[in-house]
Specification:
The complex is a heterotrimer.
Chain A (H helix, E strand, L loop, with lengths): L23 H6 L2 H26 L6 E4 L2 E4 H10 L10 H31 L15 H4 L1 H20 L12 H9 L2 H29 L7 H27 L14 H4 L2
Antiparallel strand pairs in A: 1-2
Helix pairs in contact in A: 2-4, 2-8, 2-9, 6-8, 8-9
Chain B lengths: L2 E11 L8 E11 L4 H14 L22 E2 L2 E2 L21 E5 L8 E3 L2 E2 L2 H10 L19 H11 L6 H5 L6 H12 L8 H15 L8 H5 L7 H22 L1
Parallel strand pairs in B: 1-5
Antiparallel strand pairs in B: 1-2, 3-4, 3-5, 6-7
Helix pairs in contact in B: 2-6, 3-5, 5-6, 5-8, 6-8
Chain C lengths: L16 H8 L5 H4 L3 E5 L3 H13 L2 E5 L17 E2 L11 H11 L6 H20 L25 E2 L5 H19 L2 E4 L2 E9 L2 E9 L5 E5 L2 E4 L20 H8 L4 E2 L4 E7 L22 E5 L16 E2 L1 H5 L9 H13 L11 E4 L1 H7 L1 H19 L8 E10 L2 E2 L12 E3 L17 H16 L1 H7 L10 H19 L6 H16 L5 H21 L11 H25 L23 H4 L1 E6 L8 E6 L14
Parallel strand pairs in C: 1-2, 1-9, 2-5, 9-17
Antiparallel strand pairs in C: 3-4, 6-7, 7-8, 10-16, 10-18, 11-15, 12-13, 12-14, 14-15, 18-19
Classes of the chains: A mainly alpha, B alpha+beta, C alpha+beta.
The complex binds flavin-adenine dinucleotide (FAD), protoporphyrin IX containing FE (2 copies), iron/sulfur cluster, FE3-S4 cluster (F3S) and FE2/S2 (inorganic) cluster (FES).
Iron/sulfur cluster (SF4) binds next to helix 4 and helix 5 of chain B.
Chain lengths: 270, 256, 640
């Protein structure tokens, strides 16, 4: 990109055209700092979800439990439980939908902010350094946020098509969470995909969790050291937890056993 | 005193802002390790002139790390391999014989290359003009000791005020962000009691001016590592909060 | 044109002069201020503070600097501090004492009224800078801290770590930036003023060269302020920044502004000695080091042992020996000359035998390394970075270097030069320091001139011009001066010789340093006066400037500056030769006591020498402003 130099005197540089009053969010979000707040807040929502989701999924290790006199997989019960939070205060699935909407909005916002900041940053250095940089502290995680992020989005798309809608699932049975997981992750390439995607997520969170404190301005010399530990912790927990699932399936630790349950597959969806 | 031999310099040459630019290779058969990096370039330049060639253009002035004029990307690091020092404070004893040293200008769209290794950093001035001051017209100031300032506060303000405006933070930042520079100026003024009246107006206008020229901060921390004054990225966090608050406070003030 | 030196010192008792002046001076009414355009060349402490204040007052101001930003001016490098007669420490300081110390420090060669005014406004400077957010050092109680500096008996120096100049300049720069942002000041950066334009004896504008494009431009104004800094780089090696030069002041001089006391230059005793022939500048080490370090050289000129193996009996602690009561804290000039004598006698230390030891071994033994680290840690680090030697283990090596120039454009009480409409401020003028400057007083003077003096003293000149037509850039004189400047730079390009501007600068600097440096005498000065023109001739014939003159060309910039240093160098030597006495920074070896103390001659030389340019650098005309002392009495100093 051709760069130009302006000569001649500078003056009146701080004069601003009278700004139209914009709604707070639009105004704030229009700047890079505002977008970073949006990223951090949506990132926190994401971290919350990912950790919650991972903990919920751990239930698959609890195997079969007795519920209402029936033998069922604990994780299937949990799926049901999610659908019934705040029932009867709210209609069935209402809370789940609120959560889903928040998640969707958060993801959209996060990705939009990531996209526009990436464009901004590209413009800020149109001509790259012509020789290799010798980075001191910027690490692999921080420099690959966009790529790990994209991997995660693609993964989410596949993942929904797989375990939520069943489009890419070999034998999707609505509500039979344990069965679905087993069926899906028994395919080696899919298990590999899950592993890769979750490592990418871990890398994303290794930087993201540290970074969001800066973006949110939560900075206090007393706990600054802990941010790194926290980020490492979050990333490790998420990776270890989530990667364990495909491995467990492949290793046969998680395996659907029709004889262990008293409710047949088709009815589990109820 | 030792002598280094056989250095190869790969130096970026560019005729003007929209020139094509290329690396030029120069040999330095020998140089004393007492020489500063810029003195080595001086010597090379004298040689070039004697050979009838054009001297390499690079910015420099005080040569003691305080004016912020010098600005070279040496071997992929802003201000070169020495931590907490500007280019002009770098000495040849940091290098060893036979080394190949690559020298590039700062690269950022807000810092157009004027020629060779010299860039235009006036975008920093624009940020300061937007609000990096305390309004105190000459003559009306109250006694200097009227407002005591706790020593730790004055010290913290001084830490941030030590910024020399060299632009290494922008040069080093993978995003070409000027967050460290801007936040250092904000921290210097916003920490002081004298700076409170304009605190949020300052944060708002400086951050928005910064946005017109520079990239965004992804918290890489490269800027801090390159900064010759080792300004802390903690200032960036403070800037973010102040900017957020400014959006509330300034609105409230306007609504009155 | 003949020059008359009218100092315009106001009537009344010394202490009331400034207030009387303010009370009686002509004012420009606020709505008329907009009608006046003022050019300020230089954006260091003096220039930035002047431009910002004049802008605030409502004048149309245009500020010029050859730097990329006002914040780069050389003022940024000042380390030690700034004086002010605040008496916050309650140790007996007062305006009168600061005034007196400055006169005495200047060896009774400064104008009383100016110095008193400086001491008066020093107090306002600190208030102003604190209001602007300068983070001066503070005590635990939150009040401002002070230290004693340069041998002063009171603690009146305000400081911000070792970066006082930086913080003050940033303060002034930010205030200027505000005015630029608001549109009251226009900033021209990377523009070098290469001449001033006069019409009918008045200064009406300047000619500039755009360092980025090589274009020449003309600018007209009602008045011009030069705040272009000092000329310490005439010596080539100095503690000044690389770009410091005399062009601004010198071009004004050539157009009729008298140049005062060029031989008054200050040498700083504690700098890191030159390490090599290609050394580009010298670095100052804070003088405070002398509080704990002991200065010595080996007794034997052929000494080869490393310092720690030289036993006590083979060391010469010469300052302690010669000046037992002051010892290592002897004043700047005294200790500088003593170091020079030791080095000249072959007792110098270091690879080039061009320094003396500043040894902390004893202090480390007495106070412990941690105390020394606490006091001087950053200075020690800086030393190690430059020399590669660890001063906790090996004694530092120091040597004096050119640091500050007291001489400069002659100005009257209103800071106007002998060209009406041309003002000079900061280090560029000669006004307040006499023959020597106290530590921490240059920053004070720059800010005093810019903030509190010029904004008042320019008004009378401007008021007279109200509603009178002034020439604009279409006046033929502008075209003429521009053409001259163009030709001059074309000439440098076309010589096509073999030597670089730096080569000539180095040679010239060596001559000036050898004969017009710390120690001067008639024979040496005569020699310099014959060598400089010869070298200048060679410069004109054998200079080589490569590259183009339509884009950045630092070689060409340098050529113009060196050319002016030649002419200035002549004047420095001429002035030094004429001044047959030793005073302040000017030491003539013919005029000293047996113990090597300076001998001042108040009967014959209590005057300011103001030189007029005649077109021939070998034959300038000297004018004298006799110094009348109403309040202080001449005194001889002694540091024995
Ligand atoms: C290492 C060092 C330490 C010092 N420490 C102290 C100290 O502790 N205390 C103290 O009181 N003093 C100290 N001094 C002295 C003091 O810093 C200077 O005397 C003072 O800052 C000079 O300020 P100024 O505004 O006059 O000039 P400068 O700051 O030198 O500014 C000159 C300005 O003029 C511009 N300029 C010059 N020529 C031209 C031209 N031809 N065209 C366009 N622009 C031009 C430059 O761009 C610059 O903006 C120190 C000096 C040095 C070298
Ligand atoms: C559910 C999935 C995701 C989670 C949990 C998540 C989390 C985070 C977090 C916590 C941050 C730190 C924010 C900050 O610095 O303040 C972050 C930053 C980032 N995320 Fe994500 N993210 C997710 C998905 C994505 C996706 C899909 C993308 C993009 C394609 C993405 C791209 C980025 C980028 C580029 C950053 C750096 C911010 C910047 O440069 O300013 N993330 N993410
Ligand atoms: C190996 C790890 C994972 C396993 C075994 C797993 C399993 C599942 C299962 C079984 C469902 C369907 C639940 C139901 O329909 O009741 C589901 C839903 C979902 N998963 Fe995962 N998941 C994993 C990792 C992730 C990751 C890393 C993310 C996001 C970054 C994610 C995002 C989602 C989303 C958004 C849904 C849809 C939730 C909804 O219906 O509201 N999952 N997951
Ligand atoms: S913050 Fe550091 S790197 Fe950035 S401009 Fe200031 S001194 Fe230079
Ligand atoms: S390197 Fe760049 S991304 Fe932020 S922390 Fe520093 S500005
Ligand atoms: S030249 Fe001044 S900081 Fe390097």
């Amino acid at each position: 990109m051709a760069q130009t130099l302006n000569r001649g005197p500078v003056s009146g540089t701080a004069a601003k055209p009278p700004a139209k009053k914009k709604p707070f969010f639009v105004d704030f979000y229009s700047t890079a700092v505002g977008k970073k707040y949006a990223m951090a807040i949506t990132g926190i929502i994401g971290i919350g979800f990912v950790i919650g989701h991972m903990v919920g999924n751990l239930k698959m290790y609890l195997g079969v439990v007795t519920k209402g006199g029936e033998q069922v997989y604990d994780i299937d019960v949990y799926g049901e439980f999610l659908r019934e939070i705040f029932v009867p205060l709210l209609p069935e699935q209402a809370f789940l939908w609120i959560v889903r909407i928040v998640l969707i909005l958060a993801l959209v916002l996060h990705v939009h902010a990531a996209y526009s900041l990436t464009v901004l940053n590209r413009k800020a250095r149109p001509v790259k350094y012509q020789t290799a940089r010798d980075y001191q502290v910027a690490n692999f995680a921080s420099r690959t946020m966009r790529w790990t992020g994209i991997i995660v989005v693609l993964f989410i798309a596949w993942h929904l098509a797989d375990l939520t809608w069943g489009w890419v699932h070999p034998d999707f049975v609505k509500g039979a969470v344990y069965y679905n997981i087993d069926q899906s992750l028994s395919r080696l390439p899919v298990a590999a995909l899950y592993i890769v995607a979750n490592i990418a997520l871990g890398i994303h969170l290794f930087h993201g969790t540290w970074s969001l404190f800066q973006s949110m301005g939560w900075n206090n010399p007393r706990f600054n050291n802990w941010r790194r530990y926290l980020a490492t912790g979050v990333a490790t927990i998420v990776v270890v937890g989530n990667v364990s699932f495909p491995i467990a399936v492949l290793a046969g630790i998680v395996e659907y056993d029709p004889t262990a349950v008293t409710v047949p597959l088709e009815e589990a969806a109820e | 005193m030792k002598t280094l031999t056989n250095l190869t310099l790969k130096i970026w040459r560019q005729d003007g802002p929209d020139g094509q630019g290329r690396f030029e290779t120069h040999q330095i058969p020998e140089i004393s390790d007492e020489a500063s990096f810029l003195e080595m370039l001086d010597i090379l330049n004298e040689r070039l002139i004697e050979e009838g060639k054009e001297a390499i253009v690079f910015d420099h002035d005080c040569r003691e790390g305080i004016c912020g004029t010098c600005s070279l990307m040496i071997d992929g690091r802003a201000h070169g391999p020495q931590q907490g020092a500007a280019t002009c404070q770098l000495h040849m004893r940091t290098f060893s014989s036979g080394a190949e040293i690559v020298i590039e200008p700062w690269r950022a769209s807000a810092f157009p290359i004027i020629k060779d290794l010299m860039v235009d950093r006036s975008a920093f001035d624009r940020i300061v003009e937007a609000g990096g001051y305390i309004t105190a017209p000459t003559g009306g100031a109250p006694d200097a000791n009227l407002i005591p300032i706790p020593k730790p506060v004055a010290d913290a303000s001084m830490d941030a005020a030590a910024c020399i405006g060299c632009g290494a933070c922008v040069a080093a930042c993978p995003n070409g962000a000027a967050s460290l520079f801007t936040s250092a100026k904000l921290a210097h003024l916003n920490l002081l009691p004298q700076g409170q009246a304009e605190r949020y107006k300052r944060a708002e206008s400086m951050v928005e001016k910064m946005d017109e020229y520079f990239g965004s901060c992804t918290n890489h921390g490269e800027c801090e590592a390159a900064c010759p004054k080792e300004i802390s990225i903690d200032n960036i966090a403070t800037m973010n909060v102040d900017y957020l608050k400014s959006k509330f406070k300034n609105r409230k003030a306007l609504a009155r | 044109m003949t020059i008359t030196l009218d100092s315009k010192v106001p009537e009344g008792p010394l202490a009331d002069k400034w207030q009387n002046y303010i009370a009686n001076q002509k004012l420009v009414n606020p709505s008329n201020k907009r009608k006046f355009k003022i050019i300020v060349v230089g954006t260091g402490l003096a220039g930035a503070s002047a431009a910002a204040t004049l802008g605030e007052l409502g004048y149309q101001v245009e500020a010029f600097t050859f730097h990329d930003s006002p914040r780069r001016a050389h003022s940024i490098a000042a380390q030690g501090g700034i004086n002010a007669a605040k008496n916050y420490q309650g140790d007996g300081d007062s305006i009168h004492r600061l005034f007196y110390d400055t006169i005495k420090g200047g060896d009774f060669r400064a104008r009383e009224a100016n110095v008193h005014r400086l001491a008066e406004v020093s107090v306002d400077i600190i208030d102003q800078m604190v209001a602007q957010g300068v983070p001066f050092a503070r005590e635990y109680g939150g009040l401002l801290d002070n230290r004693s500096f340069g041998g002063a008996q009171v603690s009146r120096t305000f400081y911000a770590r070792g970066q006082t100049g930086q913080q003050l300049l940033l303060g002034a720069y930010q205030q200027l930036a505000r005015q630029i942002g608001l549109g009251n000041v226009k900033l021209w950066n990377r523009m070098e003023m290469v001449d001033v334009v006069t019409v009918e004896g008045r200064c009406v504008g300047i000619v500039c060269r755009d360092l980025m494009t090589g274009d020449f431009t003309t600018h007209s104004a009602h008045a011009v302020v030069l705040a272009t800094g000092g000329y310490g780089n005439a010596f080539f090696l100095s503690t000044n920044a690389m770009a410091c030069n005399v062009t601004g002041a010198w071009r004004a001089h050539r157009r009729g502004a008298a140049f005062a006391n060029p031989c008054y230059t200050q040498i700083h005793p504690t700098c890191i000695p030159q390490a090599d022939d290609f050394q580009s500048k010298l670095t100052l080490m804070s003088e405070s080091l002398r509080n704990d370090g002991r200065i010595w050289v080996p007794k034997n000129a052929d000494e080869t042992r490393p310092p720690d193996q030289i036993p006590e009996e083979d060391r010469d602690y010469y300052l302690e020996r010669i000046y037992p009561s002051f010892g290592n804290l002897a004043p700047r000039d005294v200790s500088s000359r003593a170091a020079k004598r030791m080095v000249d006698a072959g007792q110098g230390v270091g690879p080039l035998k061009n320094g003396v030891y500043l040894d902390f071994a004893e202090a480390i033994g007495r106070l412990g390394e941690s105390t020394i680290r606490e006091r001087y840690g950053n200075l020690f680090d800086m030393y190690e970075r430059i020399t590669g030697e660890n001063p906790y283990q090996v004694p530092m090596r120091i040597y004096p270097a050119s640091h500050y120039t007291m001489g400069g454009l002659w100005v009257d009480y209103e800071l106007m030069t002998t060209i009406p409409g041309l003002f000079a401020a900061g280090e560029a003028n000669f006004s307040d320091h006499g023959a020597n400057r106290l530590g921490a007083s240059a920053l004070m003077q720059g800010l005093s001139d810019g903030y509190f003096v010029l904004p008042y003293t320019m008004a009378p000149y401007l008021a007279d011009l109200l509603n009178k037509p002034v020439p604009d850039t279409t006046h033929p004189e502008f075209a003429k001066v521009e053409l001259e400047a163009r030709d001059r730079f074309k000439q440098y390009m076309s010589i096509g010789g073999t030597k670089t501007p730096d080569h000539f600068h180095r040679e010239l600097g060596q001559i000036i340093w050898d004969y017009c440096g710390m120690d001067r005498n008639a024979t040496g000065l005569e020699k310099a006066l014959s060598e400089i023109p010869a070298l200048h001739e060679e410069f004109k014939k054998d200079l080589r400037v490569t590259g183009s003159d339509t884009s950045v060309n630092q070689t060409l910039e340098k050529a113009g500056r060196v050319d002016d240093f030649f002419e200035l160098g002549m004047l420095m030597c001429k002035d030094a030769l004429n001044r047959e006495e030793s005073c302040g920074g000017h030491f003539r070896s013919e005029y000293q006591t047996e113990e090597g103390e300076a001998v001042r001659n108040d009967d014959d030389f209590a005057y300011v020498s103001a030189w007029e340019w005649t077109g021939d650098m070998a034959n300038p005309v000297e004018h004298k402003e006799q110094l009348e002392y109403e309040v202080v009495k001449f005194q001889t100093r002694s540091y024995k």
